[in-house]
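Task: sequence in, structure out. Protein: Class I SAM-dependent methyltransferase.
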Amino acid sequence: MKRSIADHAARFSEIAEEYDEAQDSDEYAACASMVVEAADPRPEETVLDLGTGTGAIALALAPAAGRVIGRDISEGMLAEARRKAEAAGHGNVEFGEGRFREPNVPEDADVDVVVSNFAMHHLADDEKREAIDAIAAIDPRRFVLGDVMLSAAIPEGEEQYAPEVDDPATVGVLVEALTDAGFVVSDATLVGDQYGVLVADR
Ligand SMILES: C[S@@+](CC[C@H](N)C(=O)[O-])C[C@H]1O[C@@H](n2cnc3c(N)ncnc32)[C@H](O)[C@@H]1O
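Result:
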């Protein structure tokens, strides 16, 4: 099942122009709005959005934050994000290449809040752990993760995600990785049995 970063990047670049319209599920809307609400940046703070895609979360946070940095592996998705930022007139948002385990944070940025929505499940569980360690190394005061995450094993055929490209972790695996990386999980909201939002503080 495992796909390379290049495979994921190419797949998302192909669908970039239609991506926003396709995000019409209740679960996506619920997780996205909870991530934005929990991120709650102060006006002087810097937010890093990993797996930013077309910038849904980054752009929603731009009016509240001082600076927003969106990182993704797909040039097509990043191009859509930049187009939307320009159309909205958000001068404090920048989008560029970066991946979970190498987020490519600008040298002059001091990141306060890291967010990620519907993206980390593309990594295998050991890679998610490495990604969480890389996020901890950035030393944010808060990390908000919205994603496909399983409250229990899902029987074959009942997955709401695509098992051929998606590799969601259980909530337990994510909470353990966050705790091992020095975060305190202050809130966990499950959306059905296959999605959720975790709020992790330092
Ligand atoms: C389903 S989209 C979610 C986009 C956005 N966060 C949202 O809420 O609409 C997943 C995104 O994760 C990106 N992605 C996949 N693997 C990644 C990785 N290892 N590092 C950074 N981004 C990745 C994809 O290119 C894609 O844009």
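The chain has a mean pLDDT of 96.
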